[in-house]
Amino acid sequence: MIAFCADLHLGNHKQFGDFDGKDHRKGTNARSGLVLETLNRALQLARANGAYRFVICGDVFDKASPGPALTEDLLTILVGAPVEVTLLVGNHDHESDEVSALDPFSQLEGVTVARGGALINNHYTSLIPYVAGSSTTHILQQVHHAKQPFLVL
Length: 153
What we know:
By secondary structure, the chain is of the alpha/beta class. The chain contains 3 helices and 7 strands, in the order βαβαββββαβ. Strand 1 (about 1-5), helix 1 (about 30-50) and strand 2 (about 55) form a beta-alpha-beta unit.
């Protein structure tokens, strides 16, 4: 079984903007703490319920340049993850096609960072971004005609 979540937006200071005495320039606040605690519990629950992989479907961070404390907090959780983790790069996770805020996590054992798509258990997995005023029909038609296992997230 594969467990999924999306849009953590770590570092978003629009909600729960109090910083619990922490320096906001480091990128941490009460909301980020709650999201990280919830992610940690979700990883544990995924394993307890038979999942072998946990996929975060984009927008792990709210900005492409998260603070070092926030990056370290996520690193701590991923290092201790009881299942393999795939991080799909979302539009908030990068400033260019070459560099992503998620790139450093690809060095961790059991963590895969993927741009545009990933092969998960012989199923090609891809994000179809929401674009206001456009349709994803053409992408879904390509998936239908591909004649291969494909998960669209």
